[in-house]
Amino acid sequence: MLYLSPSGRGRLRSSRVRGMDKFKARSRTLRASQTSAEAKLWQALRNRRLARWKFRRQHPIDRYVVDFVTLDGKLIVEVDGVTHSEPSEIARDKGRSAVLEACGFLVLRVTNTDVYENLEGVLEMIESTLRQD
Prior knowledge:
- By secondary structure, this protein is of the alpha+beta class.
- It has helices at about 15-30, 35-45, 85-100, 110-115, 120-130, and strands at about 55-60, 65-70, 75-80, 105-110.
- Helices cover about 45% and strands about 20% of the residues.
- Strands 1-2-3-4 form a four-stranded mixed sheet, sandwiched between helices.
- It is globular.
- The N and C termini lie far apart (about 55 Å).
């Protein structure tokens, strides 16, 4: 008989690894049901259309799934709807941003209205933020 690894060793089967499967499934669901503002911004960011930066959408980072991220630029872009103007949501977003910033990312928040009415301005802001590094 041939054993490639000793019994009980090999690939790690921790709850953290199993938990990642849930994150991946959640990310897939969110990609399939994106808002129209997210879809509009994604069309402008995908395929390295913004200054050759590679963006991912609905990507898991730490315990959150972020709207858009460029891993090379360490920038997260969150598109916030009208519900994010409530005090409880503002506090939740602040805590979420703190965790993501502790992971080494800069979090940039834009509203749905910004995306609909001033997409060029949003893209310019994202690009200038990435150029600062």
